[in-house]
Design goal:
Radius of gyration: 22 Å
Helix content: 55-70%
Protein name: DUF2029 domain-containing protein
Order of helices and strands: HHHHHHHHHHEHEEHHHHHHH
Number of domains: 1
Transmembrane segments: 31-53, 104-124, 136-166, 172-193, 205-225, 282-303, 366-385, 391-415
Shape: globular
Keywords: Membrane, Transmembrane, Transmembrane helix
Organism: Aeromicrobium ginsengisoli
Largest sheet: 3 strands, antiparallel
Oligomer: single chain
Length: 433
Amino acid sequence: MVHRGGRESRPSDVPEAESSAPVRVTLRQTLGLWLLFALVLAWPFVLNAAWGVHVGFGDVHLYRLWALDGVEHGRWPVLDFDWIYPLGALVPIALLSPWAHDQIYESLFIGLTLMMVAVIMMAVRDRIGVRAAAWWLLFFLLLGPVAISRLDGIAAALATVALLVIVRRPRLATVLVLAAAWVKVAHAAWMIPLLVCSRRRLRDVLVPALLMTFLIGAIAVALGAQSHLFSFVDGQSGRRLQIESVAATPFHLLNAFGRPSGLYGNIQLAAWEFIGPGATRVAHILDVLMPVTVLAVGALTLAAVRRSRMPNHELLLLSLLATTLALLVFNKVGSAQYVVWLSSPVVASFALGADRDRVWRTIRGLTLVVAAGTQLIYPIGYDALIDGDAWAVVILVLRNAALVALLFVTCRTLWAASRPDRAALSTSTDRDC
């Protein structure tokens, strides 16, 4: 799928995981990974028992109520009424609906996500190596409960599988990315880097995407959901500036320095938002700035692909990461679970090999900092953040600064790859003279 400037991929363009023999893993390393997985599983309960922290499983309770409404009254989201999620998000919710009458539904949903995390851990270990699998688990541990109790975790798992198979099965990768997008629409933005970096855009990206879209549309019509199919598009339009978002940082600082900014508890969405003219104006600006930034990343990637100064698979991962970061940094909502979107391109970067590690080590480290900072904000410090406690505000500012730094590093790397070769420019100038 990936190429260098329209030419056939060279061996250096192919990820190590796809082009070499299976990774050798010792029993000790495998046991270490399963121990780390056990920590991911146990950590939410440790939070609850040791500190009495609300573990942030509220959304799973909401999923159960939707499933219960479907089982008892035959009213399903998207099928019978507008919904904030795409149709694909209904699949895991409805899959567990036989248990919707009991609290076990919530445990089963979390168990489903954890099972996907474990399966991908083993796939990453076998295809890329133990370091990548350990990073994957450490990320989920540092991000905490929201990583395993939201639809975002399922979407991230599908996207990660897509990147694991993208070299040998590019069409399957496109289908998996679209499947992730029909669970959480943010992954639809990945289609831009996939198109830009593809060697066979029609065969590997456009045709599978159109077929997948047609299939989803046919299913929607068969289920009678066509009138609500795209209701998620407007689902976020009425949202205000949420307190976890990067753009909310100035309003937190104003609060800290004694200039109160209005806070509003959105009970329906279980979120806290800033209100007032300034916050409303910022939210409207972000509605425009976010898609513009995503398109700018796509344009920068296209220029870098044409220069052919970097392995194209690495350009794809950088572009996917920069696109995801644009969706986070310029998002007026910025919920904690959105951070899990970062995991897929970063864990896939381990396949690039040790010689490509210099920039990616910085990216991986900053991503772990973002994950840990996000958990400290939600669920651990959420009440303190609402109250304007200094320590919570400082952590939020640092987390948001790390997100901006990540976006800067990825875009700077793409920019360096897109710039003209100075030697070629010098030669061209000499010839003109």
